[in-house]
Amino acid sequence: MISLGIDIGTTSICAVLYDLTEDKIMRSVSAPNSFVNTGSYLQDPDRIVSVVKELYKELMMELKLWTGERGTRKDMTLAGVGISSQMHGILYTDSMGKAATPLYTWKNEDGNKEYRDGLTYARYLTKKVGLPFYTGYGSVTHFYLQETGQIPDNAAAFVGIGDYLAMQLTGSRKAVVHKTMAASFGGCHLEDGRFELEKLAAAGVDISYYPVVAGAKDLTAGSMKVESETDLPGGGRAVPESVPVLYAVGDNQASFLGAVRDQEHSVSINVGTGSQVSVYSREFNPIAGNDIRPWIGDGYLYVGASLNGGKVYERLAAFFAEVCEKFTGQKTDTYKMMEHLAVKKKETGLRAVPTLYGSRKETESGQEAGIYGLNPDNFHPEDFIRSFTAGMARELFSLYSTFPDMVCVGKTQIVASGNGIRKNTLLREDVERVFGLPVIFTDREEEAASGAALYVRRAVIEGGAECR
């Protein structure tokens, strides 16, 4: 029994064949994702679909070879296709279910532009609707495009990129989204799993473009036909002629499912382009300032999301590389040298606030990004490096500290995922020190794609039983 998991990230797209019986990845493939133009926050949805289809073909060929080498002639059951998707961003589809616009990703900053009464588009919606909205959220992007006349005439609805992939794989024209994706757009009633359409309309938002939210037991977007090229030598098929495709789930939830085996006692930290700290709870406790997201099954994820993740350390590495090249005319492996220099410098009095890319919350008060406490004794490269990783860890802990006590009680470990921490020994050390908990790494390196593949077990095999 195997499943296919697909993760559409901001910088890369990954697909895995997952052995649900052995609970492990059989094969993974990936390809880079990219923005339409340098400096833009737009991506090409049809290119993304094409990339996914190529990755799928590669995996099916691998499966054909794998089964052929073992003389397998019986049918191997491909139980279904799960999709994990970057959240918040939207694209518009026409009445035929085809893309009418680019994908406006979560990085879109139009919501921070001034709208009226001295308020940005995001803050205006927050005030009028009474729910939190930030730039990059689908509802904010939709409102901005609506008010500036940029929604094309042939647009019928908006969806996330994972939803669009599901539509293209199944041939569906219907704009339907999973509750995890709906919540990421903003303006969603978390406990009921529905959009607050009346409040949105009262704020001046055109609600005719909003997708339908799938019901709790409605998990399958449709079926995908499988081409006969997967026939095995001597008869039999590696996969059935068609397989169910699930509605896309948020990459935060998929990553948590893929990485964390002990949900009750673990804190999940993911460091990729951005970074997130997440905790699972069955209880809904809407304390002001908390980002609470619906879980794939019953319960919720309490999430602290930062715009400053691996790209902060990447920017620091680029700075050192630039200095070295301009001074010596030579290029160097800055990542390796940075770790070599700072690994012995466990702590420093130098204090960095490395929020180079700002905060999702405009109203959040705090120290401006910078370097503080500089003196002759700590004016060294290793102090700068360690101050950055310690600052990144402190930001994650400050987000975690806003969670209700009842959510954080009983946590005994941090499960880390994402290359931004997996490949950064310094950050791992500082996270352990700041949180006071041991850091372990998940044995599933492609966490989001694995989570999407594992979701198939709940949705298809177990008939919608709670995903644990």
From TrEMBL:
Question: Cross-referenced InterPro entries, in alphabetical order?
Answer: ATPase_NBD, Carb_kinase_FGGY, FGGY_Carb_Kinase, FGGY_N
Which residue intervals define the domain Carbohydrate kinase FGGY N-terminal in the entry? 3-258
UniProt keyword terms in alphabetical order: Kinase, Transferase
Tell me if Transferase is a UniProt keyword of this record.
yes
Q: Does the keyword Kinase apply?
A: yes
- State the family named in the UniProt similarity comment for this chain: Belongs to the FGGY kinase family.
Protein name per its UniProtKB record: Carbohydrate kinase FGGY N-terminal domain-containing protein
Query: Which organism is this entry from?
Result: Hungatella hominis
